[in-house]
Amino acid sequence: MNGYERISAALRGEKTDKVPVMLHNFMMAAREHGVTMEQYRNDPKLIAECFMASVDKYKYDGILIDIDTVTLAGAVGVPVDFPVDDPARTHIGNLDNLEDVVHLKPAKVEDYRYIQIWLEAVRLLKDYYKDEIYIRGNCDQAPFSLASMMRGAQNWMLDLMMGTDEQLESLLEYCTDASSQFIKLMAQTGCDMVSNGDSPAGPEMISPEMYLKLAMPYEKKIVDVAHKSGVAYTLHICGNTDVILDHMLLTGADAFELDYKTDISKIYSTIRNTTTFIGNIDPSGVLALGTVGSVREKTLELLTAYQHSNRFILNAGCAIPPVTPSENLKMMIDTARNFR
Question: N or C terminus: fewer CB in 10 A for the chain?
Fold first, then answer.
């Protein structure tokens, strides 16, 4: 089986010849290719070259094309900083008052330069690998997360307590439209899968009841958009998601990419028969800062815990730091390749 076939099989719950591997390694891929994040984010050909070089070096099955976590926010007018050596970031929102949501102009994310760069990079990689390597085009923020960026994290938390249902729903619908636009555009590149992150919607920020009311329904809407566009969908939420895993299943996502803080036995018992699990080696404490021996140990623990389910794709639990030693990443992948 090739990489595309392995990951496709894992999404269907079918047995694979080897454990599939998909990496969230855009920062590491750029660093190893000798380019800054500024150079990377501004050149789709260079983005593609970084991942091609990484696949050649590590021989993994699926590419997750990412640029940063604020591109969609920038596309709807949130002020963005562009550091030379780090991914882009935001510090403040662009919606001063929640009641001003009624005055927002309709989003048109395709007009944002960095959206087009992202799309072109995915298109180049899909054209190059065809059905040899699985291509996942990340689509940045899910609606709840995007709303948090538009208001600013602190203001958004206050909004959840003080805003009216109508105001909250209006902003979340606006953000759902923006996220849906990006998903539809990404599907047109020919990619095999799309994904979003919705970490502010996790239990470390809001209650499970609030997730069920204000995040999950909008995640489900964008999952439906992806499926209608003919692509698989992965949802990523950082932190410990133990108490919302059952709620997350209601989204209909094909896969969950979950943090190492989520209990693996809980993941296994909750989703093993219905939804593919992507993860969840600790990217910092183990991959970046651990020894080769500790990487092997933690990888074996994870593989053993999930060995009786075909719905598994190995990855870190979140983005892999650029300073990660190559021997650690190779050990994680080699351990998976030789696991029986």
Answer: C
Distance of alpha carbon 184 from alpha carbon 198, whole angstroms: 18
Rounded distance between C-alpha atoms, residue 234 and residue 65, angstroms: 13
Helix axes 326-337, 44-58, angle to 10 degrees: 60
Considering only CA atoms, give the Rg of the chain: 19
| 240 prior amide bond cis, ω within 30 | no
Mean pLDDT of residues grouped by 10 in the chain (340 residues)? Answer: 98 97 98 98 98 98 97 98 96 95 94 98 98 97 98 96 96 98 98 97 96 98 98 97 98 97 96 96 97 98 97 96 98 95
Question: Which residues, 6 or more positions from 313, have their beta carbon under 8 angstroms from its beta carbon?
Answer: 7, 10, 20, 21, 22, 61, 62, 255, 276, 277, 278
What span, in angstroms and rounded, lies between the C-alpha atoms of 182 and 186?
Answer: 6
Would you tell me the crossing angle of helices 153-162 and 165-187 to the nearest 10 degrees? 130
> Which domains are delineated in the chain?
3-337 (3.20.20.210)
The answer to whether the CB of 313 falls within 8 A of the CB of 307 is no
The SS3 of residue 223 is helix
Contact by Cβ (8 Å): 128, 63: no
Whether residue 1 contacts residue 17, with contact meaning beta carbons closer than 8 Å, is answered with: yes
Among the listed residues 140, 164, 146, 152, the one whose alpha carbon sits nearest the alpha carbon of residue 26 = 140
